[in-house]
Amino acid sequence: MINIKYFARLSEALNVKSEEVEFSEQINTVESLIQSLVGRGEPWISEFSTENKILVAVNQELSNRQAMLKQGDEVAFFPPVTGG
């Protein structure tokens, strides 16, 4: 399994804070995981579109969409944080 966590406005828009998905040969990178989620339709398509800057962390380390995944990984998605 891959444990997914969603934060801030992303969790609100998707109406989910966390979930688990089955790890497979088809879902072995962050990009393939995102494509699987986008396959659910709206609002997933809009939230993960390239216009929305979504940050990703794998096992609590900032990563990119090319990062490889393995069984038991934790993937967190969150919008960029701004502050003042």
Which key phrases capture this entry?
globular, 3 helices, Ubiquitin-like (UB roll), about 80 residues, single chain, five-stranded mixed β-sheet, alpha+beta
Total number of beta strands: 5
What is the CATH topology descriptor? Ubiquitin-like (UB roll)
In round numbers, the mean pLDDT is: 92
CATH architecture: Roll
Count up the domains: 1
* Separate helix tally: 3
Name of the level-1 CATH class? Alpha Beta
* Radius of gyration computed on alpha carbons: 12 Å
Order of the strands making up the biggest sheet: 2-1-5-3-4
| Major sheet size, sense and barrel closure | 5 strands, mixed
Tell me, what's the shape?
globular
Which stretches of 5+ consecutive residues score pLDDT under 50?
none
Order of helices and strands: EHEHHEEE
Label the structural class: alpha+beta
How would you name the oligomeric state of the polypeptide chains in this document?
single chain
**What is the CATH homology-level superfamily?**
Beta-grasp domain
The percent of residues in helical segments reads 10-25%
What's the end-to-end separation, in Å? 38 Å
**What fraction of the residues are assigned to beta strands by DSSP?**
25-35%
Would you mind describing this structure in some detail?
A hairpin with a 2-residue loop joins strand 3 (55-58) and strand 4. The protein is α+β, with helices and mostly antiparallel strands and 84 residues long. A 5-stranded mixed β-sheet has the order 2-1-5-3-4. The chain is globular. It has a single domain, classed as Beta-grasp domain (Ubiquitin-like (UB roll)), CATH 3.10.20.30. It starts with a strand and ends in a 6-residue tail after the last strand. It contains 3 helices and 5 strands.
